[in-house]
Amino acid sequence: MDFSSVLSGFSVAFEPQNLLFCLIGVTVGMLIGVLPGLGPAATIAILLPITYTLEPTAAVIMLAGIFYGAQYGGTITSVLLRMPGEASTVVTALDGHALARRGEAGPALGVAAIASFIGGTASILLLTFIAPALAGVALAFGPAEYTVLALIGIFLVGTLGSGSLWKSAAAAALGLLIATVGLDPLLGTPRFTFGTDQLADGIDFTIVAMGLFGVGEILYNLEHRDRPQPAVPAFGRAIPSRLHWLRSRMAILRGSVTGFVLGILPGGGATMSSLVSYAVEKRVAKDPSRFGKGAVEGVAGPESANNAAATSSFIPLLTLGIPANATMAVLFGALMLQGITPGPGLMTEHPDVFWGVVNSMYVGNLLLLALSIPLIGVFVRMLRVRPGVLAPLTVVITMLGVYSIRNNAFDMLLVVGLGLLGYGMRKLGFEPGPFVLAFVLGSLLEASFRRSMRLFGGDVTEFVQRPVSGTLVAILVLTAVVVPLLRSVRSRQTAAAERAAAE
Amino acid sequence: MAGTEPEAPEEEAFEEARPGGRVQAVVAGVLPVAIGAFAAWLAFGLRIGSLTDPGPGLWPLIVAGLLVACGVGIAIIAATAKAHHGTEAFTKGAFAVLCAAGALAVYASLFEVVGFEVPTLLLLFAWLRFLGRESWLSSAVIAVVATAVAYALFILGLGVPLPHIIAF
């Protein structure tokens, strides 16, 4: 590896102009992370016209800052309001909000900020040293490997929930089904569009996330608006206590590695890694029943994971030219607008852009850590706003955000429909997690499956016969056998604990 | 007038919502079956093809089949189980949810016809007053201020081309 270009990347990152755009990027990112609805992909798309006039490095530094800054900001609303600003902070809401209701909002946010910082920074380091090697491995993946990989991802999330396996599987199947709406990815035949052009492009992930999580959550809370609101938890110190730290540090370590590895895989990314990290923490915990009731590891693990993944998801884009998620796809567009084609040649042809952007992330993460600690106090005050006031404001921001994606009022109707679906799913005991993941991976899974089938001449057993995909199948089977066993042990323990508590 | 609303006595256990009954648990299985069956019927309208040469309908058909299978599993478990923990009973509040969803649908439909200002103002006011139970005055003030802020943020700040009637 050419270290001189890595070092010259630092001089690029520390140019005053680039520092300024890094600061603007992370601040905007944090803000939109807090606003539910307007995700980083939508924000970056909105800001694309502005970046025409900027120098390429500065433009990408700013847009990248929005992306990973949003990971920090999304945490705040997850913890305080149980309204995840970003899909990748959905699991943080489970334990983060439970902690907040217990009066530990400050420590929870402190742990989240530190976990995010460590996860992000560790990921940049790993990216710098092993990006070329990992790019080689990922290059060897064919459609068969992607098929199995996507299945593993969906399976892991399906087993994550505490709900029934059947319902998780049904939710995943529904997600896969909704993902097929639009033009057939290989042949271009319209499917499930009911004759309208509005559905020809399929349903945007942002719309699904906004509808299911944003509007769905608002509607769900509306039903129970007569419930007495628990007193606003007192805001503790923004710095986690010794106990919080001791409990989180291993989770942060595991989360950083999980996030880095999953972030590289296309279709994986921040959301999946945060979900997987949560599942891992729940499984390694001595007392898994604490999870969902305010386990600080449930905040630390996913937060380090989603930031590590946000960083490492740049790897496939910058080294292979494959966007790993929706935001990366928009960044792909931003680079193309600047006349730079992301791909294997980027590192050698534009070393200043590649290493300038990568090294600016160190700066960005430091800035975010510095911003998070004082700003946490400001955001905790948001809890004092009455939910009756907050809900309509959130809903308007969400609706306007939805409109801003495609300047299309039909999408707003779609979001309302998906919101009702999210509400109904929650009332009937279906978890939105598997649904959303399956939706995200749906097109990848289908395209890979169909390409493999053509490749194999319709022989399904080929999945097992090829060494790489065979290994992945073995992993899938192993998880499929081991996980239900673990679940049954866990549910027996939980039942025993409930009986003990009842007596 | 805040705080004069009598609390519903049956909602004392607000931490855990009441589980729904057997019927609701079975419905949770019947709905996926219905959706899956409908999707499978639509998939047959597309070309299924074969495993060697998959058509556009093959994958949706596989997924729809999975959905039906899961739904059957859920329904059987729900019909035979003694306890039903999986679902949450619908309360009177579900009416407010439907009202809100209806209001949002109307909002989305009016949006491109009359611009975003008036619908936003009305939506905010109605939601604050009737769903949020704010006073008439604070509902009006918050609605006006929030609409102005949304205008400044989205149209003037972010340059989102929202349909609007007030132009500068």
From TrEMBL, chain A:
It comes from the Bacteria. It comes from Glycomyces endophyticus. InterPro entries: DUF112_TM. The chain crosses the membrane at residues 20-52, 58-81, 108-131, 137-158, 165-183, 314-340, 360-380, 387-403, 469-486. Residues 19-437 form the DUF112 domain. PANTHER family: TRICARBOXYLIC TRANSPORT PROTEIN. This is Tripartite tricarboxylate transporter permease. Keywords: Membrane, Transmembrane, Transmembrane helix.
